[in-house]
Amino acid sequence: MARRDEKQSGLFGWSWSFQLVTNVSILSVALLVWGIVFLFVLSGATDPSKENFVALTWLGMIVGAIGTFFVAPEFFYYLEQKQVLDDILLLDSRAEVLRRRKEGEDAAIMLGSKHMGLMRGLLEMHKIPVGKNLAGESSIPSFQSNEYSKDSWWSNSNSIISQKLPGLEILRDLFVHRLLILTTLSALVVLVWNTLFGLATQSGSREYTIDLTEKISGSSSYYYPSSHLDPVSILLIIFFLLLLYSTRAFDQKED
Question: What is the pTM of this model?
Answer without folding.
Answer: 0.57
